[in-house]
Design goal:
6-stranded parallel β-sheet; 11% strand; TIM Barrel; alpha/beta; 2 domains; binds zinc ion; 9 helices
Length: 262
């Protein structure tokens, strides 16, 4: 207790305590930075979404895909979702990014999709030092900013691998998944369709973030079937940021999200 507080009533003491805490924050750039970094500015336009209806956020990793043409599974996926007037989230890495594949990311942005970050070289983040982590995460950010004008981008950690140091170091929300298509594990289009259709039928798909990869033909085939199927079942296919904003849920930096329940 402060010596001057001895002459104050308990409520006055508590008020003084709060003022001192606030002053301390103002003088401590680190604590200001910590509080700022928790804020995730969700700029998604959700005017087209009915928050009462079911929704799902399908997300695709490991793009852009070479070469960018109509045979690319990534372009087939973009088209299937865009034709239905729906949206999805694409997590891009530096491994295949160049002047040519940039066109795929630009196209995703123009179709109203969410473009997001999947690091530079796809490492296990917990194996890196905080400085190495920041460099990996920082590589795609200016590229994505140049395309979208956005300031911050959701991150999908490679292999969904996260520890406390990653959470403390990365200043954006960390996106896991609530339903894994297992396309990375050689799932066929039929297996992916069966798994997602079953979740649609029993209601558990609502609010889920689905993990897929835009690099497989089987995934493109599954998506071409699933988009009209989900729409026929009254599902809205939305981006991750759209889902959280439509449901009035805030995301925080350094927190891991796999779903957004109603
Ligand atoms: Zn990946």
């Amino acid at each position: 207790m402060n010596i001057f507080d001895l002459f104050l009533t308990p409520p006055e003491r508590r008020a003084n305590e709060k003022i001192r805490e606030a002053l301390f924050d103002m003088n401590d750039p680190q604590s200001m930075e910590d509080r700022m970094r928790d804020k995730w500015n969700n700029t998604a336009d959700v005017s087209w979404i009915d928050p009462e209806k079911p929704m799902v956020a399908i997300s695709f990793d490991d793009g852009p895909v070479r070469p960018v043409n109509e045979a690319s599974p990534a372009i087939r996926i973009q088209d299937a979702i865009a034709k239905a007037g729906m949206h999805a989230t694409f997590f891009y890495w530096g491994n295949t990014y160049d002047e040519d594949t940039r066109a795929e990311i630009v196209r995703a942005q123009e179709l109203g999709f969410e473009i997001a970050n999947h690091t530079k070289t796809h490492p296990f983040l917990p194996q890196l030092t905080p400085e190495e982590m920041k460099a990996e995460v920082g590589f795609m950010e200016p590229i994505l900013k140049g395309i979208s004008g956005q300031e911050q981008f959701l991150l999908r950690p490679p292999y969904l691998s996260v520890d406390q140091v990653v959470k403390d170091t990365i200043n954006v929300p960390l996106i896991s998944c609530g339903l894994d298509s297992e396309d990375w594990n050689k799932a066929t289009a039929k297996q992916m369709i069966d798994k997602i259709a079953k979740a649609c039928e029993n209601g558990s798909l609502d609010g889920k973030i689905v993990l897929m990869h835009e690099t497989y033909d089987a995934t493109a085939e599954a998506v071409e079937f699933l988009v009209p199927y989900l729409v026929a079942n009254d599902y809205q296919i939305v981006t991750i940021s759209e889902m959280f904003k439509a449901r009035d849920k805030e995301m925080q930096a350094g927190q891991v999200y796999g779903e957004c329940p109603q």
